[in-house]
Amino acid sequence: MNDEDEGMIPQRAGPPPGVGDSPPPVSRERRGRIAGIDFGRARIGIAITDPDRTLASPHENYARRGPVADARRFQQLVQEEQVVLFVVGLPVHLDGRESEISREARQFGSWLAEATGVPVEYFDERFSTSEAHELLKAAAWKHSRRKRKLDMLAAQVMLSAYLESRGKRPPTPGPL
């Protein structure tokens, strides 16, 4: 391994924001992509940025298959797409309180960091799924096609909002 390769080694995530110190932001100098995660118990929507981290695009809907297969898939994603950061969406209540599913998303994020060695940040994803649903309805797609695209489009909406707000957002979601 040469000195250039060492800069590409993924680093482990620290504790989630709100628990101890949050992970440092990914520097502009470190090349790689950011992957947005729309967490679900059965399916996970994945969006990914371009290498310059300016645009987010839907990537895939991943049907969960169990911890071993899931770890393999996300490790493969990190390698293939050169992912240096995961942003996991937190579905919080309108008043900013976390829901049961947001606690599960945090647990998933901790597992994801452990499984891949890539840092994880969390981002308020209120309304990302409903916004994605409205975008798909406006495209006049049939219900079955919308359902197949919804989770990865929700991940794209959330990741786009994350990119737009870098440096401007509070560390934890608050009330509207």
Briefly characterize the structure.
The protein is of the alpha/beta class and 176 residues long.
Q: How would you portray this structure in words?
A:
The structure is a single chain. This protein has 176 residues and is α/β, with parallel strands linked by helices. It has a single domain, classed as Nucleotidyltransferase, domain 5 (2-Layer Sandwich), CATH 3.30.420. Helix content is 40%, strand content 19%. It has a five-stranded mixed β-sheet with strand order 3-2-1-4-5, with helices on both faces. α4 packs across α5 (143-165). The longest helix has 23 residues, at 143-165. The radius of gyration is 16 Å and the shape is globular. Residues 1-24 have low confidence and may be disordered.
Name its key features:
single chain; alpha/beta; Nucleotidyltransferase, domain 5; 5 helices
Tell me the layout of helices and strands:
Elements: H1 3-6, E1 33-38, E2 43-49, E3 56-63, H2 67-81, E4 83-90, H3 100-116, E5 120-124, H4 128-138, H5 143-165
Parallel strand pairs: 1-4, 4-5
Antiparallel strand pairs: 1-2, 2-3
